[in-house]
Every structure is written in structure tokens, then in C-alpha cells.
Specification:
343 residues; mainly beta; Methylamine Dehydrogenase, Chain H; 2 domains; four-stranded antiparallel beta sheet; 1 helix; 6% helix; globular
Length: 343
Amino acid sequence: MAAMHRSAWFIVVSPLALALAFAQSGYHQIKKIGISGDGFWDYLTTDPATGRIFVSHGTEVDVVDGQKGEVTGAITGLKLVHGIALAPEFNHGFISDGAANQVVIFDMKTLQKVGEVAAGMNPDGIIYDPATKRVFAFNGRGASATAVDAEKGTLAGTVTLEGKPEFPAPDGKGHVYVNIEDKSEVMDIDAKALTVLHKWPLAPCEGPSGMAMDTKTRRLFSGCDNKMMAVMDADTGKVVATVPIGDGVDATWFDPETKYVLNSCGQDGVLTVIHEDSPDKYSLVENVKTEKSARTMALNPKTHTVYLSVAQVEMLPPAEGDAKGRPRRKVQPGTFGLLEFGR
């Protein structure tokens, strides 16, 4: 009778428990990992096999041991790092060095630079496409993409684009998609032929930056400047859903196991968590508090851990002679690091 009583009690409360569980993602801050140096930052990425995080940081890439919570190495001698892509099968990492207009190649084990490939103007977003074994660096001011043979470390070709590319996503079947920020479009690239197959409008999304993809449902996720995430059918180019997110998004990731789409929003200082209920239906789960300026992030899909680059930034008056009156930014000494969020 006691066992029956416990079973009946569980049945009564379980719907509420399930509802509460679904309403919250479980993401919370575990720790902050300090990283020395006062340079600015952009993208970061993880290597799930080793648990390392590769963090853009001014003129270098800092390599953090996720388990130890400390910096264990660095790739130095760069001019201005934007992003990092990894091709572990060839033991090669790739850095988009925006100020040098090149892709720098490094050995993933020794962290030594082993090559470089000339790119277009200001290579920014960068990814590895496993289908073609190529790395694609998207040149922000060059309106193009530079393709690099990931094994040989040589130039494979260039794709001419129309507009300013932001972050890309591969589908693993020979397509690479990229947000076009100034036109609020998505371009579909044939990764082998190096041609643009389609260009699709993202309206009502404006100013897309971060991008991720669910390769099973064939859905693209674009984080947009007007505080929304647009969901696009990667085969038809149709925007099938939009979901509100925080302000200042610059990175979007998808976790295939949890079906969470994550957007790091630096202006509001939140991590917007969205659940993919079905290919065309999405639920806003919650806005997890992070810190102001935490605009870029990386997901380790093996552990579901999220890492966000962050620092305290001081706004300074415009430089003398700046006709546009653009304020300068300065990272406060000793404030740069990673926020680690887990479930």
C-alpha cells in the first residue's frame, strides 16, 4: 500500500514538475576564468574532444583548459584576431587575422603556426566544412569568402558575395550558409563549386550576425540586431518563425541533444535560451543573466557547457579628427575572461 501511495503522489505532482523543468533551461554560472591582457575580443570556439576553448583576444588566441579553468597556451604574433575554426582530423586550426588580411594555420597539439593563406579584406567569421574538407573565412570588408584546403593549408578559391558577410554555418552536405549583415539576407554557397546558389531575405530580421543550424531539421538560426532570432528553412529560404531575444546579439549556437538554440546578447547581458519544439515551432525558455558585453560565446556540445567572453569596457571620447564622431572603447585592465555556464 505504501508503494502505491508514493506512486499516486508522484503522478499528481509530475505535470507541475515537468512544466517547471521546461520553463527553465537549468543554465547558471559555474565560474569565471580570468585571462590576462587588455585586448578586445571577437569569436571563440571549443574542441569537444579535449575540452579546450580557443579564445580570440586582440593579437593572440588564448587556449583555455575547460576542466582546469585556466589558460594553458596561446598562439601569438597576430595582428587582430576575429575567429578560430578547427579541423581536428588534420590537426589544424585556422585563425581569421582581420588586420593582416590572412588566414593563419596552427598545429592543434603544439599551438605553433605552420602556415598562412592570403584572404580578402578583414576576414572575420570562419568555419570548417567537413563535407569538402575546406575552411571558409568570410571577408567583412571584402564582400567575399576565402576557401582553404584544411589538409594542405593552401588556397582553394574565392567566393564573391554581395554585401557584408557575418557568421556562417555548414550543413555537412556541401552547403555553407552565411548571414549578410548589411542586406539582412542569407546566402547559400556551394562549398565545392564555390558559387552562390541562392540569396534569401531574412525579413523581419534586421542586421543578422550569429548563425547556427540544426542539420537534421534543415533549419538555420540567425541572431538579429532588432532583438529577434529568425528561423529559416535551409532548402527553400522561407522564414518559418521568429522569436524575441535580448539586445546586442553576436553569437548563436544550437545544441542537437537538448534542442536549445542559444543567443548571447551583450547589450542586455543575457543568454537567450530557445527550445526547438518542432521544425517550425519554437519556445522562449528564458533569458539567463550573464554580464554586459558578453556578446560572443561557444558551446561544448559534449558537456552542454557555454563559454562567454567578457570584460569591463570604458567608452572614451572620439579620436581627434574622427569626422564620424565614433567613441573609442578601452578594456579595463584585469577584467577580461570567460564566463562558464552549465546546466
